Amino acid sequence: MLRYVTTNEGKVAEAREYLDDVSALDFDYTEIQSDSLVDIAARGAREAHAHADEPVIVDDAGLFVDSLGGFPGPYSAYVEDTVGIEAVGRLAERERGNEEDGRAAFRCVIAYCDGEEFAASPDPVDRGDRVTAAATDLDEDEESGDEDADDGSSPSGPPVKLFEGVVRGRIVEPRGDGGFGYDPIFEHDGTTMAEMSTVEKNAISHRGRALAKFGEWYHER
User: Fold this and answer.
1) 3 strand-pairing partners
2) Pair 108, 41: CB distance under 8 Å
3) Residue 52 in contact with residue 25, Cβ under 8 Å?
4) How far is 139 from 141, CA to CA, in rounded Å?
5) What residue segments make up the domains of the chain, in order of their start?
6) Where is this region: Disordered (predicted)?
7) pLDDT in tens, the chain (221 residues)
8) Is the distance from CB of 206 to CB of 107 less than 8 angstroms?
9) 79 near 157, Cβ under 8 Å?
10) Fewest 10 Å CB contacts: which of 2, 148, 164, 208?
């Protein structure tokens, strides 16, 4: 059994489109303060595995706006709750140049941990750089001493496998009554997420794209 650390049944339903045997795990892992989705998801997956002693996946996602230097990014939920999506849209409009045309992206990172060893995948997020080192608890000396350490292993815990999904679009005036969060101000191919049906949204979802990558790897594993 694979456990998806979430209380959102919609996420579990989406995951079941790519995975045969997955169920929700209600576990309040420590959500560290970080500018990287990788750091947050990887730490959460390792902590959830230690709690459940079963294979787990944790996701972290956010809206990254080009004109705001990637803000709100990992802080998307907090910013939505405190200032609202319309304020983010106005700020993006004020800060962007004409050449950027409101460009933005929804990003999601899926982190998997089962306590066993595994090799690194070719996914771009799974690489031996400072971001991955931070996610896997490697300190600066360890990182510089082993440039090939890209499998997520560390002395303080088991390896974590990382998979990223991205959907690109642009920030617009709010449109549509569906979806949730930033969906009304995020337009993809001329339609905001809030104007899409659930089927249409899931077909291009950043979480779905990350789950598809993970599902392919997991079935082979």
Assistant:
1) 23, 56
2) no
3) yes
4) 6
5) 2-220
6) 135-162
7) 899 999 988 889 889 989 988 999 999 998 888 889 999 999 999 999 999 999 999 999 999 999 999 999 999 999 999 999 999 999 998 887 665 678 999 999 999 999 887 765 545 454 443 344 334 443 333 332 333 333 333 435 788 999 999 999 999 999 999 888 999 999 999 999 999 998 898 889 999 999 999 999 998 87
8) yes
9) no
10) 148
Q: Measured at the alpha carbon of residue 74, what is the angle toward residues 155 and 61, in degrees to the nearest 5?
A: 90
Q: Which element (helix H / strand E) includes 165?
A: strand 161-171
Instruction: Give me the half-sphere count of Cα atoms (radius 13 Å) on the Cβ side of residue 172.
Output: 17
Catalytic residue check, 60: yes
Which pTM does this prediction carry?
Answer: 0.80
Q: Tell me which of 20, 21, 28, 60 is the catalytic residue.
A: 60
